[in-house]
Amino acid sequence: MIVRLLVRWAALAVAIWLATLIVPGVVVRGGALTYLWVALLLGLVNAILGPILKLLAFPLTLLTLGLFALVVNAALLGITAKLSRHLDISGFWSAFAAALIISLVTALVHRVARQLNRERGASSSRR
Predict the structure, then answer these.
(1) H helix intervals, the chain
(2) CA 66, CA 43: separation in Å to the nearest integer?
(3) Which residue from 1, 6, 25, 88 has the fewest beta carbons nearer than 10 Å?
(4) Cβ–Cβ under 8 Å, residues 74 and 99
(5) Helix, strand or coil for residue 30?
(6) How far is CA 125 from CA 26, 32, 74, in A?
(7) What integer best gives the mean pLDDT of the chain?
(8) For the segment 53-82, what is each residue's pLDDT rounded down to a tens digit?
């Protein structure tokens, strides 16, 4: 359980780092520990405010076949930027592009981790 949480936290930090490399207007000032801090803060913002915003936005998310969820994620990233002096986002489109990259990277990492868990579970059941 704790290992899974640490892997998710590290994956989120790497996703944020990749977003800063790819998206102009998204800047994190600091080193690896700063990325971990921003990832922790984004995780907390997402855990606390995410369910509320996603519930309120559900009709639009349903109407847009899930695309509005990226707008919600961009808003959560913007809130994180307001709460941290280490993360700067220049505007909505930068936040939107960063949210898209972060979502893709974390989904990919979670999928790979799930596949590894299945393979590990299958190999241990064969013993």
Answers:
(1) 2-22, 32-48, 50-56, 58-63, 68-83, 92-125
(2) 21
(3) 1
(4) yes
(5) coil
(6) 45, 38, 42
(7) 93
(8) 999 999 999 999 999 999 999 999 999 999
